[in-house]
Amino acid sequence: MALSKIDSEIEQVDQEKYLRQATNFYQALEKPLKYGPEVNSLSDLVAALHREFESNYVNIEMVNHLMLSYKSNPREWRKYAKFDRYTYTRNLVDAGNGKFNLLILCWGEGHGSSVHDHADSHCFMKMLKGDLREKRYEYPNRSARDNGRSHHPDGEIDSRELVEIGETPIAVNDVAYINDNLGLHRVENPSHSDTSVSLHLYCPPFDTCSVFQDNLKKTTAKVTFWSKYGVRTKQNEQ
């Protein structure tokens, strides 16, 4: 990890700016840290996240550790899991004092997202129930020379169509991570008989993102909540 590349000599730094800079270097842990704290419940996770975000210099690696360390317990998250017959739902668990959003997403049989970005934020996605499948794409018209992840010999991403660069299954208690420097993604529940539930952390929070079609047409989508803290939101409060 190359977070040390971020200017650490500045005594006071805007947390949001710091987090967005960190997306240039962070790529994710594969397993929890040996020295990290234990997380024994969803409430432990929320409390630990609040502690991490008290500092302007948020330790993204520790945030990753916390998400990996929590083990799914349906008795703890069931009250937030609200399903819709026609589409997947985004249910706010904790607003993180405006510094992060922790959400539970509920996926009915065959439900999936559009191809989208994350507004230069970090996205951690942990499976709580069932399975999801992530398809990842190059970010169109975005130079890849600086991050060394280009799949094209000239270092530039093909701007004519979405370029798929990988497909990954996500099983219970796995954690996937993405930011805009790693690409776009689409997430779907591949099952036509079982539902899925996932826990997502976004930092900094965002209220709009970009959605992409196969022909690269890009639109701005408003991010809404189907419920907040276990209570269905009204249309004008989403």
TrEMBL record:
<keyword id="KW-0883">Thioether bond</keyword>
<feature type="binding site">
    <location>
        <position position="116"/>
    </location>
    <ligand>
        <name>Fe cation</name>
    </ligand>
</feature>
<dbReference type="GO" id="GO:0008198">
    <property type="term" value="F:ferrous iron binding"/>
</dbReference>
<keyword id="KW-0560">Oxidoreductase</keyword>
<dbReference type="InterPro" id="IPR010300">
    <property type="entry name" value="CDO_1"/>
</dbReference>
<dbReference type="InterPro" id="IPR011051">
    <property type="entry name" value="RmlC_Cupin_sf"/>
</dbReference>
<feature type="cross-link" description="3'-(S-cysteinyl)-tyrosine (Cys-Tyr)">
    <location>
        <begin position="123"/>
        <end position="202"/>
    </location>
</feature>
<comment type="pathway">
    <text>Organosulfur biosynthesis; taurine biosynthesis; hypotaurine from L-cysteine: step 1/2.</text>
</comment>
<dbReference type="InterPro" id="IPR014710">
    <property type="entry name" value="RmlC-like_jellyroll"/>
</dbReference>
<dbReference type="GO" id="GO:0017172">
    <property type="term" value="F:cysteine dioxygenase activity"/>
</dbReference>
<keyword id="KW-0408">Iron</keyword>
<keyword id="KW-0223">Dioxygenase</keyword>
<dbReference type="GO" id="GO:0019448">
    <property type="term" value="P:L-cysteine catabolic process"/>
</dbReference>
<feature type="binding site">
    <location>
        <position position="118"/>
    </location>
    <ligand>
        <name>Fe cation</name>
    </ligand>
</feature>
<keyword id="KW-0479">Metal-binding</keyword>
<dbReference type="GO" id="GO:0042412">
    <property type="term" value="P:taurine biosynthetic process"/>
</dbReference>
<comment type="similarity">
    <text>Belongs to the cysteine dioxygenase family.</text>
</comment>
<protein>
    <recommendedName>
        <fullName>Cysteine dioxygenase</fullName>
        <ecNumber>1.13.11.20</ecNumber>
    </recommendedName>
</protein>
<dbReference type="Pfam" id="PF05995">
    <property type="entry name" value="CDO_I"/>
</dbReference>
<feature type="binding site">
    <location>
        <position position="185"/>
    </location>
    <ligand>
        <name>Fe cation</name>
    </ligand>
</feature>
